[in-house]
Amino acid sequence: MEKVNLAKQLVEWRRDFHQYPETGFLEMRTASILASILAGLGFDLQLGKEVMSDHHCMGKPDEESTKKHLQWAMTNGASKNYIEYFSEGYTGVVATLDTKKEGPTIAYRFDMDALDINESGDGDHYPNLECFKSKIPDKMHACGHDAHMSIGLGLATLLTANKDNLCGKIKLIFQPAEEGTRGAKSMVQANVVTDVDYLVASHIGTGVPHNHFVAANNGFLATTKLDISFNGMASHAGSRPEEGKNALLAAASAALNIYAIPRHSEGTTRVNVGELHAGTGRNIIANQAKLKVETRGETSSINDYVKDQVESIVAGAATMYQIDYDIEVVGEGLSRRCSTDLASILNECAQESSAIAESFIENNDSAGSEDATYFMEAVQKNGGLATYCIFGTELAAGHHNEKFDINEDTLLPAVEILYSSAVKLCGKE
Fold this sequence. Notes:
Elements: H1 3-19, H2 28-40, E1 44-47, H3 63-74, E2 93-98, E3 105-111, H4 126-129, H5 145-161, E4 169-175, H6 184-189, E5 198-204, E6 212-217, E7 222-231, H7 247-258, E8 269-278, E9 288-297, H8 300-320, E10 324-333, H9 340-351, E11 358-363, H10 372-381, E12 385-391, H11 411-426
Parallel strand pairs: 3-4, 3-5, 5-12, 6-11
Antiparallel strand pairs: 1-2, 2-4, 6-12, 7-9, 7-10, 8-9
């Protein structure tokens, strides 16, 4: 495919995904379309439960929500040939190009999910102006995953067209539920990267300027997402207050004390109580309360320290008010450093690109959390190399913002850099 045609196709793919955002483990339309395109390009496919361990999916929607969304996907453009593979909410896709020639196995990881955000309808919002704004209320691609999937398909297109110049195997991993760090672990546990020698994960934006490139984005904080529930006993607040066991007070006590967790001397820590819901009426002792909490740490061990403190505080609060509690882990990500040798190769590819004004080997600033670290850890523990690179772009607003949008001129250079890395790693000698 000529460069100008590929650039146009990348935009078309990205805008289609943007209009039909699907959140974690519900990417049914998205995954079915990806599978259809990749099959048409000649890739071997592994889908759904073939590439996801059901015991390691965190924060997965319930069966009723999943079935309801399946019906939505089937009436909104899902591929009929592939939708059944994803009907239970296991929406991972792994596409493999086997050159049948001896060589390494390289994997590229792309995330798929959207966010629970209502996209801006303002007149100056470019997706609104160009008629590719989200069609789904309160759902939006506000982090660039629509662009990531488009880049993945573009890479697949170039790989297929140049298969004769490659050796080994190349895997394209399309991962569900990155938001909330929920989906990667299940794919790792399904042995998706057991045979991988090189792994490249990537992201667009994240504050890196347009036409700039970071080959190794370190600084990811390990994280745990916790759903906490307190279960007490309701009673009339006026006539029988002594008979109640107050879940609201337990939750409030836990929330306040969570913020009092001492920081760790060996590195950065974060903790946040993002939601607290409790009670059913002003004259009723609250018998139910729920907290949504996240912990983060500069290393996985520091994050474990914060998480352990949260669990102790919750147990103590429940004991104080003589009620029961439950803690569910609904997401988790690791800390991980990129492999410098692989990052150097990506950096060379970027420096050879006429579209890149400046390229950097690494960035060590704290960068939130990412569950691509599960893939990275698995590959590195097996003796392979892994990196996480950033394609800089102009952003209309920050990530996870209702006015988020990217400069689509970033798409083609991103594809070309990743393809160039495949040639350097899997090119025929």
